[in-house]
Specification:
Elements lengths: L28 E2 L18 E6 L14 H10 L4 E3 L6 E3 L2 E7 L2 E6 L13 H12 L20 H6 L2 E6 L4 E6 L6 H4 L10 H7 L13 E7 L4 E6 L12 E6 L3 H10 L4 E2 L4 H8 L4 E6 L3 E7 L10 H10 L2 H8 L4 E3 L22 H9 L8 E7 L9 H13 L4 E7 L1 H9 L5 E7 L6 H8 L33 H12 L3 H18 L2 E7 L1 E6 L21
Parallel strand pairs: 2-11, 2-12, 16-17, 16-18
Antiparallel strand pairs: 1-9, 3-4, 5-6, 6-8, 7-8, 9-10, 10-11, 12-20, 13-20, 14-18, 14-19, 15-19
Length: 561
């Protein structure tokens, strides 16, 4: 039975998983498509085809080359991690490791001996060592950049999740030992994140550049084909899966950008599960026949980041606070999301350890906003571009409508906003390269730890030889390792707290640290804090055993038709 060592056991707290900066892109048709219409034909006795409709196709199925939640939905079916999350929970359970513990700066994992890759190879510790080298060792023959044209293919997750590791070694085929450079509380939970999916050593060495389009994992499903022209990915059941074997024969992921069209697919029976639903579609499904709206508290945050590296006006805290008061987030929540979201006041959602319930959302107050602007060099206003994805995301189910509201609100205080709508995958690249003035993004936590919001999204993680200035609270984009810090914020007091929180193993100490960090983030306003949304799924009544998981998942191997 897998367990956490007593020094790292934490209460079960809520969370949210996530996105920002895709890498390898694909075009054309990868494998043939049999032309199946995607309709499920299960008879309730197992088997059948499950159709899952979502807002966008994937960009890459290489876990080391993407941060996209759309990619993770598919990769979680194909790959396993050393440690998994229990379906619908934040608690850790066994994956490719059957036992694991963290004691001080040493983590030890015992691996299972009954797992095989889709290519028939046995899983051993060597596969993880090869996975680790490919992600982090730039001098390795099989480093990820050597598998694709150009540089910069490795996602931010490698350094973020494994950057504290000094050494990882195998003791035989089925024991792994990690030596950390310092105490690091989130480490075991990090091992359950989708980006640390275990790759096949054989595929890494023989065809590592094909992982993005022809992945080989140990997971419950394997890739059959990917038609990128149609935005359709077809998976087939892995009959040799070590865990709970799939109850359906096939899963088809269809990328359908329009919210209403996805809802209609569910209502007509063309799809059995749909996500990325807005308020109107939720109402449709709630009133529909033969379908159910599944909902749970969303462990996410939606925000508008001020790119201080690019826009000089945003470097003035009073400008940022003025804009925060000028945007009517309450109206956005009530009128656009119609009760399916709450206003946010800080980077982490309620329920995550360290949430500071003494903080209130910035109230809509144009007069206060103008007063703050009058204290700056921008009393007469200025202009900037607001970039937004045009497809629904869990934290922004209606992003374009929200952007239009922001534009209208800011006109009241003389700030002119141009909205730049982009398709999801190019948008992630655009924002990860710091080309935005301000942008809509959000986060669904990867591991349920507050560090996964604060360090992942607001710590610049400076490059070697770069130190944050004492005289400014921002950093040049090219000086940061963390391109998910879309605000380019670099507040020294905040950074020190986040680094301290990583080293504490006691919940009570960590909780207060993150409450203090939340207060700084609220007061300094590197973002406009917009929403925490509910997680919604439309599910056919022909489906049973579906778990709406706010972290990891979806657990489609458990679903029955």
């Amino acid at each position: 039975m897998a367990s956490r060592n007593n020094v790292t056991d934490r209460r079960s707290f809520l969370k949210a998983a996530g996105g920002a900066a895709a890498a390898a892109s694909l075009a054309g048709c990868l494998g043939g498509d049999e032309g199946d219409d995607g309709n499920g034909d299960g008879d309730g006795n197992g088997g059948g085809l499950l159709s899952y409709a979502r807002g966008s196709d994937s960009s890459s199925l290489d876990p080391q080359a993407t941060t996209s939640g759309e990619d993770a939905k598919v990769m979680n079916q194909i790959f396993d991690r050393l440690i998994h999350f229990k379906p619908g929970e934040t608690a850790l359970t066994e994956g490719l490791a059957t036992d694991f513990n963290l004691d001080g700066q040493t983590a030890t994992l015992q691996l299972r001996e009954d797992a095989k890759f889709h290519n028939g190879e046995d899983f051993t510790a060597d596969d993880f060592l090869a996975t680790y080298d490919r992600f982090l060792k730039e001098d390795s023959e099989h480093y990820i950049d050597n598998h694709y044209d150009g540089k910069g293919n490795a996602s931010i997750y490698g350094n973020y999740l494994l950057g504290k590791v000094n050494n990882v070694s195998a003791d035989g085929d089925y024991t792994l030992k990690f030596e950390l450079g310092e105490r690091y509380a989130p480490f075991l939970a990090n091992l359950a994140v989708f980006a640390l999916a275990v790759l096949s050593k054989k595929q890494i060495q023989e065809s590592g550049g094909q992982i993005a389009s022809k992945p080989v994992g140990t997971g419950p499903f394997e890739l059959d084909n990917w038609n990128t022209n149609q935005g359709r990915i077809r998976l087939t059941a892995n009959g040799d899966y070590w865990g709970d074997a799939p109850n359906v024969n096939e899963v088809v992921f269809d990328g359908v950008q329009d919210n209403g069209t996805r809802a209609q697919r569910l209502l007509s029976g063309e799809s059995q599960i749909v996500d990325g639903l807005g308020a109107q579609q939720a109402k449709q499904i709630e009133g529909g026949d033969g379908v159910t709206l599944e909902r749970t508290e969303g462990l996410n945050v939606g925000y508008m980041a001020f790119n201080m590296s690019r826009v000089e006006a945003f470097r003035d805290k009073n400008v940022r606070k003025a804009i925060s008061h000028a945007i009517n987030t309450e109206a956005i929540v009530e009128n656009i999301y119609e009760g399916l979201a709450v206003q946010s006041s800080q980077p982490i959602p309620p329920g995550v350890m360290g949430y500071n319930d003494s903080l209130d959302p910035y109230p809509y107050n144009p007069e206060k906003a103008q007063e703050l602007l009058n204290q700056t060099d921008y009393a007469d206003g200025f202009s900037f571009e607001l970039s937004t994805m045009n497809n629904p995301r869990p934290y922004f189910p209606s992003p374009v409508q929200t952007a239009d509201t922001v534009r209208s609100n800011l006109q009241e205080i003389g700030i002119e906003v141009t909205v730049n709508e982009q398709v999801w995958d190019p948008y992630l690249t655009y924002t990860s390269e710091g080309k935005h003035d301000a942008c809509f993004l959000g986060w669904m936590t990867d591991n349920g730890d507050p560090d996964n919001f604060y360090y992942a999204l607001l710590h610049p993680q400076p490059k070697d030889g770069v130190e944050a200035s004492e005289d400014q609270d921002w950093m040049a984009w090219e000086d940061m390792n963390n391109t998910s810090n879309n605000a380019a914020w670099a507040n020294n007091e905040f950074m020190s707290l986040i680094e301290e929180g990583q080293k504490k193993y006691g919940d009570s100490e960590r909780e207060q640290i993150y409450k203090d960090a939340g207060k700084i983030a609220h007061d300094e306003a590197p973002w406009v804090y917009v929403t925490h949304t509910e997680e919604l799924r439309g599910v056919s009544n022909d489906v049973s055993n579906f778990t709406l998981a706010p972290i990891s998942g979806p657990y489609l191997n458990l679903v029955e038709l």
